[in-house]
Amino acid sequence: MADSFDVVVIGGGPAGYPAAIRAGQNKLSVACIDEWKNRDGTMSFGGTCLNAGCIPSKALLESTEMYHRLQEEFPVHGIRASGVSFDVAQMQKRKGGIVKTMTQGILALFKASGVTPLQGHGKLLPGRRVAFSAPDGTRRELTAKHVILASGSAPIELRSAPFQAPHIIDSWGALDLEAVPKRLGVIGAGIIGLELGSVWRRLGSEVTVLEALPDFLPTADQQLAKEAARHFKKLWLDIRLGAKVTGARVTGSAVEVTYTDSKGEQSLTVDRLFVAIGRRPYTGDLLSAGTGVELDERGFIKVDHQCRTGAEGVWAVGDCVRGPMLAHKGKEEGVMVADLIAGRFGEVNYKTVPSVIYTAPEIAWVGQTEEQVKASGRPYKVGVFPFLANGRARAMEQAQGFAKIVAAQDDDEILGVHIIGPLAGELIAEAVLAMEYSASTEDLQRTIHAHPTLSEAVHEAALAADKRAIDSINR
Ligand code: FAD
Ligand code: NAD
């Protein structure tokens, strides 16, 4: 096998593997190195996202939402079901099957685009050389015209509550629980805490979420955050804000958590404590001395707006560089870099990276929040349309939440779209496309939306921005 490639990618997650595939499509010789090891000792491409992140979490969210709806909504539809129960082992088996199919699919995609998969550890050496070590101890040195670093991220450990499996766990542990904990403590009311907290709450866990900040979802549009908090309360997710964890002690089969909040010192006893306070860039044993690749003060690999590091021919993409830690952001960066290497056009529009929280109701947004637009001083207008007035949402028995559009007063440009409601994560795609094309609310107003669909809520929100909504009262 040739040890010289046009491109070597280190990391086969959603940033690295698309970079490798696009490089192959661009007729470049390419190898993709990945060291991901599963709990059973097997190795697979796909990184955090496919193996222990996006995909397994969505599999469990889907199963548990179905169970929850069966309990809460089916009677309203006139469907009576008795003796309904769930089987965590089967849910986990289904989740495992989906992960396996998708991660093995990457190998088929590699084959189709001529990518050489190398399972093992990669380390960048000076001069665009890469030291590859296979699990059996075999070592090879690869040379490349270009190296793409896509080493991803790892969960942040909390000093006052260090991981201690099986009691104090990270998101991978929370995805793999074999039984429903009677009491689950979650530290961090961020995306992971809310998604996986919802999974176990729906199956009956008493879930208490301790969040250090005084505000809930502080980076989201605040009207949306308030609506979300209301719904999580209804699900009986006990979210305690302004809670600073001071310690966690495993005592027998329980965990005693101590924290302080505005009322003073508090304690909480749970069966499992799940720490979800964010992720940090992972660059463990990735860079040897003298490569010219630099890290910033938070450990991210320093890159320019097109993901070039300070070393000639070395690029970095995904969670290991600045920007939101999202699979689709990493994917676009990987594809951009593989195109730039091939001399093609490549760009990522960081202003239109959508965020989705896959809870029920789902939460999604793109662009600026109303608070950000207000702070910018640019005159703006807002259109909000409630799903209560949307026929499809009514028919689905999911008439909760709203679609909100923030647009410029002067030229009508859409600046931000915020949706909480059924399938918000799907609906946001229209807003992303609209913003990508610098659309105005008038463009959306004049776009025909099929009836009855959830997408009419986005259409009506655009109309509401000019007080011209048809299906709700304009305020
Ligand atoms: P990773 O996916 O972390 O992949 C990096 C890969 O590189 C890994 O396989 C690692 O083993 C390998 N590697 C690292 N160093 C080396 C080395 N030196 N040699 C060889 N291999 C190496 N994002 C979303 O957009 N949507 C979601 O719904 C979503 N859900 C999530 C749910 C959970 C529970 C978690 C934890 C994350 C979720 N994310 C989600 C975030 C998403 O998983 C990350 O943003 C994404 O995986 C980042 O992709 P990446 O390729 O940069 O890194
Ligand atoms: P996050 O940054 O979304 O949330 C972490 C939360 O923990 C924040 O609210 C923070 O204030 C809080 N926190 C931090 N330190 C704390 C402390 N000591 N005590 C209590 N609370 C504390 O991080 P996450 O939820 O761990 O997710 C990590 C990354 O994974 C995110 O960047 C996210 O983008 C990505 N992710 C995305 C999705 C999705 O797209 N649906 C799903 C899961 C994860």
> So how many helices?
14
- Rg over CA atoms: 24 Å
Distance between the termini: 68 Å
Shape: globular
Mean pLDDT metric: 97
CATH architectural arrangement of the largest domain:
3-Layer(bba) Sandwich
Using the coordinates shown, work out and report the CATH topology of the largest domain: FAD/NAD(P)-binding domain
Number of DSSP E strands:
22
Description of the structure:
The chain is an alpha/beta fold and 475 residues long. 31% of the residues lie in helices and 25% in strands. Strands 1, 2, 3, 4, 5, 6 and 17 form a seven-stranded mixed sheet that branches. A five-stranded parallel sheet has the order 8-15-9-10-11. Strand 21 (402-408) and strand 22 form a beta hairpin. Helix 1 (16-25) packs parallel to helix 9 and helix 3 (54-72) runs antiparallel to helix 5. The chain starts with a strand and ends in an 11-residue tail after the last helix. 45% of the residues are buried.
Name the descriptors:
five-stranded parallel beta sheet, 14 helices, Enolase-like, domain 1, binds nicotinamide-adenine-dinucleotide, FAD/NAD(P)-binding domain, alpha/beta, single chain, seven-stranded mixed beta sheet
What's the short version?
The protein is an alpha/beta fold.
How would the blueprint of this fold be written?
Layout: E1 4-10, H1 16-25, E2 30-34, H2 47-52, H3 54-72, H4 74-77, H5 88-112, E3 115-119, E4 121-125, E5 129-133, E6 139-149, E7 153-155, E8 168-169, H6 171-175, E9 183-187, H7 191-202, E10 206-210, H8 222-234, E11 238-240, E12 244-251, E13 254-261, E14 264-270, E15 272-275, E16 279-281, E17 314-316, H9 327-341, E18 355-357, E19 362-367, H10 370-376, E20 380-386, H11 391-395, E21 402-408, E22 414-421, H12 424-436, H13 441-445, H14 456-464
Parallel strand pairs: 1-2, 1-6, 2-3, 6-17, 8-15, 9-10, 9-15, 10-11
Antiparallel strand pairs: 4-5, 5-6, 7-16, 12-13, 13-14, 18-19, 19-22, 20-21, 21-22
The structure holds flavin-adenine dinucleotide and nicotinamide-adenine-dinucleotide.
Nicotinamide-adenine-dinucleotide binds at residues 158, 187-193, 195, 210-213, 245, 276-279, 324-326, 356-358.
